[in-house]
Amino acid sequence: MIHSETNALLDVPGLTGIHAATICPLAQDGAIDAAELAAHIGDIAHKQGIRGLLLNGHAGEGHLLTADERRLVLEVARNSAPRGSFITAGITAEGTGAAAADAVAAARAGADAVLVFPPNHWAGGRDDAIVVEHHRIIAQACGLPVVLYKAPLAAGRMSYGVDLMSRLCQIDQVSGIKEGAWEVSAYDELRRRIKAERPGVSVMASGDEHLMACYQLGTDGSQVSLAAIVPERVTELYDAAKAKDWDRTLAAHEAIYPLAVDIYRRAPDHLATARLKALLKLMGKITNDRVKRPMRQLEPTEIDALRRVITA
To answer: Could you tell me if residue 69 is inside a domain?
Structure first.
C-alpha cells in the first residue's frame, strides 16, 4: 500500500518541488560562457513548476571548476533566475577547510543552501565521526541550510548508510537530503527513518530513472539534471503524482523514461554530463557541448544515439 506523505512542516520550505540541476556551458577554450550560462539558467528557472536550482553539482561540473568559476556560476544564476528561486550550491572540495571556504563563498554569492558531496578519497575508506565533523564544520562556517547527498549504492563507501544519515541529521542546519541511492527500496527505508526522527528535513527523491516509483511512495521534491533537459516533463510527473493521478503519472513517466535511460544507464555512466550537454546542443539550447577536462567529449556514434532518442 502506498503511504501518504508526512504533514509536518519542513524546516526550509524552499527545499520542495522540482529543482533543476543545471549544466555549465563552456566556450571552446574551456572557459565559462557567461552569456550562455545566463540564458540556460534563465530558460530553466522561469519554467512553470521549477522551484529552484542546483548549481555546481555533478551536472554542473562543480568538481572540475576553480573556486572563482564556481562563484561566477552562482553570481550569474542569482542575476538570471527569477526572484524567489531557491538556489543550492554544490560543495565538492576534498578537504574540510576548502569545502568550508567554498560554502562561505557560496553564501556571499547568494546561495540559499549548500549541498555537501562526499570527498572522492572516501571511496578508499572513511571514518563516520569524520564525516559528521566535516559536515558540521561546513554548516557552522557558512550559516546556510545544509543538504546531505545520498550517493548511489554503487558508489560504495561514498554512499552513507541509514544510521550515518541519521547521525548527520542531528546537525541543526541539516535541512534536506538529495536522495540518489538509485534504488527504490533504499529510498523508502531512508525516508521512513528520517521522517520519523526529523520530520522537518526535506527528503528529495533524485534518482532520475525511477522518479515515478519514489513519488508514489512520497517525496518532498527532487534535485535532478533531467529537469534541465525536459523541465515541463519532470514537473508534469511531479504534479500528477502529488495529485495521485496515477494514469497521468504513468504517462509522464513513459515520456521521460527512454531519455533517462540513455543519459544515466548507458555505460560508461561517468559520461552523463557530456550527454546532458550534447542533448542541449541537439535541442538548440546551447551552441557548444564542450566539457571540462579531463572529461571527454562524446564520439559521433554516441551523439547519434542521443539524436535517435530525441527524435523518438
So the answer is: yes
Q: In 284-293, which positions are buried (b, 16+ CB within 10 angstroms) versus exposed (e)?
A: ebbeebbbbe
How buried is residue 28: exposed, middle or buried, by Cβ count under 10 Å (0-12/13-18/19+)?
A: exposed
HEC secondary structure over 32-76:
ECHHHHHHHHHHHHCCCCEEEEEECCCCCCHHHCCHHHHHHHHHH
> pLDDT of 96-145, one tens digit each?
999 999 999 999 999 999 999 999 999 999 999 999 999 999 999 999 99
273 found inside a domain:
no
The number of distinct structural domains making up the chain is: 1
pLDDT digits (tens, 9 = 90+) for 147-186: 999 999 999 999 999 999 999 999 999 999 999 999 999 9
DSSP string, 280-312: HHHTTS-S-----TTSPPPPHHHHHHHHHHHH-
SS3 call for 116:
strand
Domain coverage including residue 25: 17-230
Closest CA to 224 of 111, 60, 73, 72: 60
Whole-angstrom distance, CA of residue 137 vs CA of residue 187: 27
- Starting at the edge strand found earlier in the chain, the sheet holding 86-91 runs 202-205, 174-179, 146-150, 113-116, 86-91, 50-55, 17-21, 221-224
CATH number at residue 193: 3.20.20.70
- Please count the CA atoms within 13 angstroms of the CA of 21 that sit on its side-chain side: 25
Q: Within the chain, where are the H helices? A: 34-45, 67-80, 96-108, 128-142, 162-168, 184-197, 211-217, 231-242, 246-260, 272-282, 300-311
How far, CA to CA in Å, does 171 sit from each of 113, 147, 193, 205? 14, 11, 16, 21
DSSP 137: H
The three cell numbers locating residue 235: 514537473
